[in-house]
Design goal:
The chain has 253 residues and is mainly beta. The protein is built from three helices and 19 strands. The protein folds into two domains: 93 residues, Immunoglobulin-like; 95 residues, Sandwich (Immunoglobulin-like). The N and C termini lie far apart (143 Å).
C-alpha cells in the first residue's frame, strides 16, 4: 500500500514542476537581423533641420510567437518628455495590415514598428522604443537625433519695398518720409539700416535724419535723383534689401 501512494506523490510533483516551468519560461523578444538598433530613412549620424519628417523603424521577433507591441518615447535637450509633440503621424500596425477581415486600424502616434519624427525646435533628442511581448518580456533601443534650427529669411514687400510720403513731386528742403516693413517667418527681431546715394553715386547718407528703424526722413537741399536703400537683417544671417529712387526738384516760384 505504501508504493502506490509514493508513486502518486512523485507523479503529482513531476506534473507540478512541468506545469510551473512550462508556464513561467517566457523568452523576451529579440531584434531582427539588420535591426540591432533603431534605423531611419537618413544615414547616421541622425541630423535633420527643423520641420523635416523622417521615419524611424525598429523590428523584433519573439521566440514564443507572442504578439509584440512597440511604444516610442522622446525627450528634448532639457530631458523633458516631448512624446506627444515630435511623433507626427500614426502608422497602421502590421497585424491590421495582414488581417483583411478587420477594419483597418491606426496605432497611436508613438506606437508601432514605424513612426514619423519631426521637431520644430533645435537640439538633440533622445528617442527610445520599448518592445514588449505582453508576458514581462521586453527590450529597449535608443538613439539620438540632432535637429538643426533652420533660419528663414525676412522679406520686404517685393512690389513696393519702401513707402514714400508724400508722393511725388518732391522738392528741395521738403521733408520726405520713408517707411519699410518686412516680415520674418521665424518671428525674429529685425534691424533696418538705411543709406542714400546721389546721382553721381556719392554717399548722401547725411541727408537722412537717421539710418536706423522702420522709418526715416530725407531732406535734400540739392535737386537731383537719389537712390534710397534699406537693408533688413534678422540677426541670424537672414537679410533682404530694397531700394527706391526719389527725384527732387526746385520749387517753381
Amino acid at each position: 500500500m505504501e508504493k502506490p501512494s509514493y508513486f502518486r506523490f512523485l507523479l503529482f510533483a513531476m506534473i507540478t514542476v512541468v506545469i510551473f516551468f512550462g508556464c513561467s519560461s517566457n523568452e523576451p523578444p529579440k531584434m531582427e537581423e539588420g535591426y540591432d538598433s533603431i534605423i531611419s530613412t537618413i544615414v547616421p549620424p541622425l541630423s535633420v533641420p527643423t520641420g523635416q519628417i523622417i521615419v524611424l523603424e525598429a523590428k523584433a521577433k519573439d521566440p514564443d510567437q507572442d504578439e509584440l507591441s512597440y511604444v516610442w518615447t522622446a525627450r528634448d535637450p532639457e530631458s523633458k518628455d516631448v512624446t506627444s509633440v515630435v511623433f507626427v503621424a500614426g502608422v497602421p500596425s502590421e497585424n491590421a495590415k495582414k488581417d483583411e477581415n478587420k477594419e483597418k486600424e491606426k496605432s497611436a502616434l508613438n506606437e508601432g514598428p514605424r513612426i514619423n519624427f519631426s521637431a520644430t525646435e533645435g537640439g538633440t533628442y533622445l528617442i527610445t522604443v520599448t518592445i514588449d511581448d505582453g508576458n514581462d518580456g521586453k527590450i529597449t533601443r535608443s538613439t539620438f537625433i540632432s535637429v538643426a534650427t533652420t533660419n528663414r529669411q525676412p522679406t520686404l514687400n517685393s512690389t513696393d519695398p519702401i513707402t514714400i510720403s508724400p508722393i511725388s513731386p518732391h522738392y528741395t528742403n521738403q521733408e520726405i518720409f520713408l517707411v519699410a516693413q518686412a516680415d520674418d517667418p521665424d518671428g525674429d527681431k529685425l534691424l533696418y539700416e538705411w543709406s542714400a546715394r546721389d546721382q553721381a553715386n556719392a554717399d548722401a547718407g547725411g541727408l537722412l535724419e537717421s539710418t536706423e528703424g522702420t522709418s526715416v526722413k530725407l531732406v535734400a537741399d540739392v535737386p537731383g535723383s537719389y537712390l534710397i536703400s534699406v537693408l533688413v537683417q534678422d540677426g541670424h544671417g537672414g537679410q533682404d534689401r530694397g531700394s527706391s529712387v526719389i527725384v527732387v526738384t526746385d520749387r517753381e516760384e
